[in-house]
Automatic annotation (TrEMBL):
This protein's UniProt keywords: DNA-binding, Nucleus, Transcription, Transcription regulation
UniProt family annotation: Belongs to the SNAPC3/SRD2 family.
Protein name: snRNA-activating protein complex subunit 3
Recorded GO MF terms: bent DNA binding; core promoter sequence-specific DNA binding; RNA polymerase II cis-regulatory region sequence-specific DNA binding; RNA polymerase III type 3 promoter sequence-specific DNA binding
């Protein structure tokens, strides 16, 4: 098995063979609701005494055992420092055995070795989950109903970015069962959607009007033999038909089709832990893995409007302008007499100062292409 999976960065639970059998998400939710008491998934916090009384009744432990359990399981007993000492939260104790501390130490060492300081992006990433935990909506109609199902989904970098195939998932999103696949699609940010194709050295001002997302709106998800096409806009095409016809001609088991916008997450039949596909811009293919399906909890973010909820995002180093080294590259040029290299990357300001006069007339010979940095979405 190890030989088949040389990539140690992919955790064991995401290996191809480690997945559940296919199941229908809505039915899964219903099964849970049939078995649980409404108080089990209620957002109302049960008061502690009732909880303990129920616990004693269900387990049949005596009052003495209960008192002992309470003190042993208390958060106060979770310490890795002497009782009378106030610990420095930034310092990981030596030789930690707790996995969270081991990870934290590794991260701290990495930062120390690379002299990385926390910037606002890191702080934001760390905060992503904390900011939304337990968040309630201002308007009660936006409250996620009790007993709603929540899916955790990892979306990976497209395989074409070779550099990133060894990375962890690009982003992790939480979706509720009532959200549609189209809402899922809109939450996936990929730089291919922002790409501008064409040479614009004569008309640099019109370039932003040519964003791929506005021109090529077709996309599909592929789950368990079904292509879910985005057909929301008149210019959308069914781009799954080529594969379906190809499979039909070769006597493969038939694939079916449905519309992304008409399919809720709860309607899907899927395997948890299994790699599925999201395809857009013709051939930008992302793996999509559902890693968890569960009922909502009162400590979740309960504001429906904040979903699909981003809980993790991988950050990429941005490519800076070759002239100022400050701003992110927006243009690259070729055959450029002013450029130190071919191709050469410029920020918008340096590009225009170097290549056009005050009236905006092109100076000299060069070809200019809009450039969208992969880190632009950070
Ligand atoms: Zn993409
Ligand atoms: Zn610049």
């Amino acid at each position: 098995m190890a030989a088949a999976y040389p990539n140690a960065n992919i955790p064991v639970y995401e290996l191809a063979e480690v997945n559940t059998k296919p199941f229908h998400i809505g039915s899964f939710r219903q099964e849970w609701l049939n078995r649980l008491e409404p108080t089990d998934y209620s957002y109302q916090q049960q008061d502690e005494d009732t909880f303990h009384a129920n616990f004693v009744e269900e387990t049949g432990v005596g009052a003495e055992t209960m008192a002992e359990l309470k003190s042993i399981c208390s958060i106060d007993s979770l310490r890795c420092h002497p009782e009378d000492q106030q610990p420095d939260m930034e310092v990981v104790p030596p030789d930690p055995t707790l996995k969270t501390l081991i990870q934290r130490k590794r991260r701290q060492d990495y930062r120390a070795s690379r002299k990385v300081t926390k910037n606002r992006h890191d702080i934001y990433a760390d905060e992503l989950e904390r900011l939304t935990a337990g968040k309630r909506p201002e308007d009660v109609t936006d409250l996620i109903p009790e007993g709603e199902v929540i899916l955790t989904i990892n979306v990976y970098y497209p395989a074409v970015f070779e550099k990133f195939t060894y990375n962890r998932s690009h982003m992790t999103l939480l979706m509720t069962g009532s959200h549609s696949l189209a809402e899922f699609r809109d939450a996936i940010c990929c730089v291919s959607d922002l790409q501008v194709c064409g040479e614009f050295s004569n008309t640099p001002d019109v370039a932003p009007d040519f964003i791929s997302k506005d021109h090529y709106k077709s996309a599909f998800f592929f789950f368990e033999g079904v292509f879910y096409n985005d057909m929301r806009f008149p210019e959308c095409q069914d781009i799954s038909v080529t594969t379906i016809e190809w499979a039909k001609a070769r006597n493969f088991p038939p694939f079916t089709q449905a519309k992304m916008e008409d399919t809720r997450m709860a309607d899907l039949k899927v395997k948890v832990g299994f790699p599925y596909l999201y395809c857009h811009q013709g051939d930008c293919e992302h793996l999509v893995i559902i890693t968890d399906v569960r009922l909502s909890h009162r400590s979740d973010c309960l504001d429906r409007k904040l979903f699909p909820l981003l809980t993790h995002k991988h950050r990429i180093v941005t490519q800076k302008c070759a002239v100022c080294h400050i701003f992110i590259g927006r243009w690259f040029t070729t055959n450029d007499q002013f450029a130190p290299s071919d191709p050469c990357l410029f920020c918008d300001k340096c590009f225009r100062m170097l290549h056009y006069d005050a009236q905006g007339n092109k100076l000299g010979d060069f070809l200019a292409y809009p450039y969208v940095d992969r880190g632009a979405y950070n």
